[in-house]
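Working notes for the structural subgroup meeting. M.R. asked for a predicted model of this chain before we commit to crystallization trials. I am recording the input and output together here so anyone reviewing the notebook later can reproduce the run.

Input as submitted:
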Amino acid sequence: MSTILDHIQDHESIELTQRLIRIPSFLWQESEIGRWLANWMSQRGYEVELQEVPLKDGGLSHQAIGALRGNGGGPSLMLCGHTDTSDWNGDVFRRDQWRYDPFGAEIDSGLIYGLGALNMKAGLAAMLIAAEAIRRSGSSPKGDLILACVVAETGGGVGALHLIESGCRPEYCIVTEAGDLDVGLISVGYVQGQIRVGGEFKHRVPYVNPIEKATKVIDAFSPSYAQIPPKAAGGWLRYQPHPLIPGYPAMAIRDIAHYQDMTTVTFDLRIVPGMTEASAREDMAARLEQIRQEDSEFEYELVIPQSDQQPNMPAREATPLDSPVVSALIAAHKQVTGAEPRVGAGHRIGATADTCHFKGAGITCVEYGPGFIPTWPMVDECVCVDQVITATQTLALTAEALLI
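Returned structure, recorded in token form:
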């Protein structure tokens, strides 16, 4: 095995994962961990930028971008992970059911427990220690090695978009999402929004009850996350099925809220390449217009995206299998594990990632990271120690193959 791995030790990525778990970083509240990561990279000699990321509500978040500069003789590689963890009104999902301290980073039976352990502080730690292997080796990289610790992936990729707007354009990128060590060439996008159903606010009858009218919306767009037939086959969505993402597009109603004369239905539509936010809006509006034609009392407003603060995630085409970053990643995984990785949509089928934004900027991008997701959201979030170590070694070997 390459001597590049002699420059790191297994415990380093585990201990760094634990340290990152102990820094709370709920969505939109990531400045503390951003500053910590910037300091960590600065102490080790990386060129560091602590970026201020403006939020649509007028606030600011901070993300740390580090770089080990190359000599200009080859392509650059970015390793990227997000710092935000799941957020449920500013708290941990079902905190009262956790057996482990969400910020304790306890190791038990080969698993590290804590909020963000899986999604995705283990991936962050793996990429940072992999970069340390390159730095400590003393080799002069041909291209830049960029470490992007971005904010708000679960908020629509706000941090990744800000990084792109700042001019970051490496040739290659590996996003270290929890993919069970699969090589992810493609992922779905999503269109999220609201359907606001209007009515009357009365205690007398008869009156137009928006709650009852909203049930027609639910009927029109259910069942949850079942594949929607294409319009050509009798469905209501225009798309071509994608062979690498079977079962999609699919949709679910995620929330219902009522106040006075308005019932608001929140939805999540997972889309495939070829679909866009605009095409989804047109198709949904046509579906809702069918309801209105059948019921003259049905009044609605379709709101996409669901808020100004959170953009939607586009669906991009698959990264070519013969791309150098994909070939290097597959070879490195096989060298570390002795087995071929699964390649395609993989374990994360149906999930989104910042890869969609990077691909849109012309960056050749792939997903690879530690962590098996049995269900999401989850109580007692955890990641396997062995997978963190494997991911670290694989990323180090991949970076060596592309840069040294």
